């Protein structure tokens, strides 16, 4: 419950329900295949997140469920299931985390003889880690459902190769001219096995972007029950996520059936670590005379990596891992605090 806002009433629940239903309708419109439809696909979860964070998470989930049932009734049952599992449930869980409030006893004076109860919210870094887990679980669910429906992992892989392999042939044949030793069949299999990872990575980015947009919209409307956090300094992932990422990368070499699930988590966590690397770049260059040039270079590398050279993004992931291991931003803040104390003598 929001500490600074009145308890959720029926008007909040109605708005939340409408937001979830609106997300379902946007998702249905995004399947038309036009340019505008593709743009809608990236923001179809936005109304649901706004409803879940600013009004009522359960009502937003109910609205998403109603929208999924409407899609199923309209003759698109698979579309309804895909929306509810891929957007409805993840949006509800992330909205629930974003609105979560917990209370701790803290000292009320210097002696610590008295305490007071303060309300806290999950940090942006924890929310980003939540987006990783939600996205990975969504990819695992879709992959597991495909494996179950086809009667086993190898049967599902063969079905995916038969479905998507012909579309990959022209590109692979062009690569074969540059690299004659390329095993086309093996390359095709690796690409198909990477599909769950691509789904998890794109879902993490989509959830994070829409969560930021939703929080901004709620903040502007005056319903955000906390001050806007300084994202470059507070986007700090739990250290365990970096270790889990490295473990998942190692498991990618443990066999195809393990790699497809480990790769989904590694891709999702890699996106989060790259975002933490960007946040660290913003925080560490604050006050630097060449900050603009440095950040321009970082974003240029990021855009090139996203557009044409994904291996370049490994540098950002490495920055995120370094931040998790060394707490570079915290060290800079501590040095600045010590320098201020020495300067003022306090």
From TrEMBL:
Membrane spanning stretches: 14-32, 39-72, 78-104, 125-148, 190-215, 260-281, 293-318
Alphabetically ordered keywords of this record: Membrane, Transmembrane, Transmembrane helix
Keyword Acetylation belongs to the record: no
Highest taxon of the lineage: Bacteria
Entry protein name: DUF2232 domain-containing protein
Organism of origin: Rhodoblastus acidophilus (Rhodopseudomonas acidophila)
């Amino acid at each position: 419950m929001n500490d600074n806002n009145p308890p959720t009433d029926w008007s909040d629940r109605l708005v939340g329900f409408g937001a979830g239903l609106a997300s379902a309708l946007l998702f249905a419109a995004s399947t038309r295949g036009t340019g505008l439809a593709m743009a809608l696909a990236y923001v179809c979860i936005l109304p649901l997140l706004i409803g879940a964070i600013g009004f009522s998470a359960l009502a937003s989930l109910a609205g998403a469920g109603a929208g999924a049932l409407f899609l199923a009734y309209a003759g698109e049952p698979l579309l309804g299931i895909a929306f509810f599992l891929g957007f409805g449930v993840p949006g509800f869980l992330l909205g629930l985390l974003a609105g979560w409030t917990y209370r701790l006893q803290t000292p009320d004076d210097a002696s610590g003889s008295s305490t007071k109860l303060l309300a806290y919210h999950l940090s942006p870094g924890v929310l980003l880690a939540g987006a990783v887990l939600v996205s990975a679980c969504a990819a695992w669910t879709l992959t597991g459902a495909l494996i179950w429906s086809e009667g086993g992992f190898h049967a599902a892989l063969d079905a995916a190769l038969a479905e998507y392999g012909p579309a990959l042939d022209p590109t692979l044949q062009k690569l074969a001219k540059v690299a004659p030793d390329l095993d086309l069949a093996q390359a095709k299999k690796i690409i198909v096995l990477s599909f769950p990872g691509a789904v998890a990575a794109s879902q993490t980015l989509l959830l994070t972007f829409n969560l930021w947009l939703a929080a901004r919209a709620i903040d502007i409307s005056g319903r955000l029950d906390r001050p806007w956090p300084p994202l470059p300094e507070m986007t700090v992932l739990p250290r365990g996520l970096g270790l889990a990422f490295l473990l998942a990368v190692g498991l990618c070499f443990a066999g195809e059936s393990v790699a497809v699930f480990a790769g989904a988590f590694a891709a999702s966590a890699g996106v989060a670590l790259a975002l933490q690397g960007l946040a660290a770049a913003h925080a560490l260059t604050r006050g630097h005379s060449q900050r603009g040039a440095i950040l321009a270079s970082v974003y240029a590398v990021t855009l090139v990596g996203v557009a044409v050279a994904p291996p370049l993004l490994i540098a950002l992931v490495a920055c995120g891992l370094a931040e998790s291991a060394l707490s570079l931003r915290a060290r800079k803040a501590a040095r600045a605090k010590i320098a201020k104390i020495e300067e003022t003598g306090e």
